[in-house]
Amino acid sequence: MKEFLRWFGILTGYPMYLVYFKRKTYYEDKSVQGRRIKGGALIVSNHYHVFDYIVNALLFPFRKLYVVLKSDIYSNKFLAWGMSIFGGIRSDRDTMGMKFIDESVEHLRKGRLVQIFPEAYITETGEMRDFKTGYLMIAQRADKPIIPVITDGNYGLFRRVHVIIGKPIFLSDYCTSANPDREQLKELNRIVWEKCAALKADLLARVKADETSNH
């Protein structure tokens, strides 16, 4: 029943998507990673708006995209019910609960897609915030790749949001421990953040080049 409701929500929401945040997709290297993802993977994105999840869910429409959400969303019963359909994973920041890590790892090990916004909060300046490290523990324990999906947050009536899909990042290339210590997490976080920042710069450059060529 929930899967039916998820598809109903995607199909009925598609007209709004076309009007309010129609997407143009770029790729770091499409021959390595396109919109088709096999098996489990952790989608890591920068965070402009609540629409970020909707864009990514429609980016991979044939895969259910589970998403880590802050706990205050669950204070609204309607939103809580809706996200139970779309695959919400509750993160209790106030109590420093780690249940969301175990739940995310379980989904990944079952070959599912999980979305997380490691900035934890929506950017107020447009600049990427520092990343929290919970996503690293998820990917490392599940032994699944991180796939960066970066957006320019260009939402609005008859505007177009731009997205770039990066190549998978395998943390095992940089750290073999399933439980990295604090210093290892710090270094891994730096590597992933810098890759995402470079992707964002690449995305903005491509968008600017396209706009210039169209004038």
Could you explain the architecture of this structure?
The protein is an alpha/beta fold and 215 residues long. It is 42% helix and 17% strand. It has a seven-stranded mixed sheet, with helices on both faces. It is globular and about 50 Å long.
Labels describing this entry:
about 220 residues; alpha/beta; 7-stranded mixed β-sheet; 6 helices; 7 strands; about 40% helix; globular
Distance between the terminal alpha carbons, to the nearest Å? 48 Å
Main beta sheet: 7 strands, mixed
The helix tally amounts to 6
Rg from Cα: 17 Å
| Molecular shape | globular
Low-confidence sequence ranges: none
- Helix and strand composition category: alpha/beta
Question: What strand order characterises the main sheet?
Answer: 1-7-6-2-5-3-4
Count the E strands.
Answer: 7
Q: What's the SSE pattern?
A: HEEHEHEHEHEEH
Helix percentage: 40-55%
What fraction of residues sit in β-strands?
Answer: 15-25%
Rounded mean pLDDT score:
85
